[in-house]
Specification:
The chain is mainly α. Helices cover 79% and strands 0% of the residues.
């Protein structure tokens, strides 16, 4: 049943993200999800919640296979960050809300990036660890060069979806002779 929810959450969030990206396009600063959210606040809210749920369900399933529990408070921090991102406008004329939105969005991204990277590192899935690190570093470099675009925002999220889903759908090896 857990695998079903992992797949369902990723498919739902991917569909919503794909639709949301079609509204603003994938390139240019005007395509950034928060900018599009100014003119489509309900869809921005749906996108944010579905993204959080997909990452949360898949991170929970991944960490449930381990002995680690540090992820639980971090998922709460991530939830609070996403809620603040969604309720505070990305409108510079409302400077305080703008700053909270930006800080919360960065917190959400950083916490989830750390959780995904740590999961693969701690479970010794080094190929997934390397891919996660490479996607994050590349994304940071592109962000510094081109500023925010929908494509730069969505690539690490989709990479997380795919890697977490593969990790969660793989059968665990049974220990023999114990």
């Amino acid at each position: 049943m857990r695998k079903f929810f992992c797949v369902l959450s990723v498919l739902t969030a991917s569909g919503i993200s794909g639709y949301y990206m079609c509204i603003g396009g994938i390139s240019g600063n005007e395509s950034a999800f928060s900018k599009v959210g100014l003119s489509h606040p309900i869809l921005f809210f749906v996108w944010g919640i579905s993204t959080y749920i997909a990452l949360c369900v898949n991170l929970y399933a991944g960490y449930k296979k381990t002995k680690y529990n540090f992820y639980i408070p971090l998922l709460f921090v991530s939830a609070i960050a996403m809620i603040l991102t969604l309720i505070c406008d990305f409108d510079y004329s409302r400077h305080t809300q703008y700053m909270i939105h930006c800080a919360a969005s960065l917190t959400f991204s950083a916490v989830n990036a750390i959780l995904v990277f740590a999961l693969f590192l701690l479970t010794k899935k080094y190929l997934f660890t390397f891919i996660t690190g490479a996607v994050l570093v590349t994304d940071l470099v592109l962000l510094l060069i081109f500023k925010e675009t929908a494509l730069i925002e969505i690539v690490p999220i989709f990479a997380g979806y795919i890697l977490l889903l593969i990790n969660n759908l793989k059968k665990e090896k049974e220990l023999v002779g114990t």
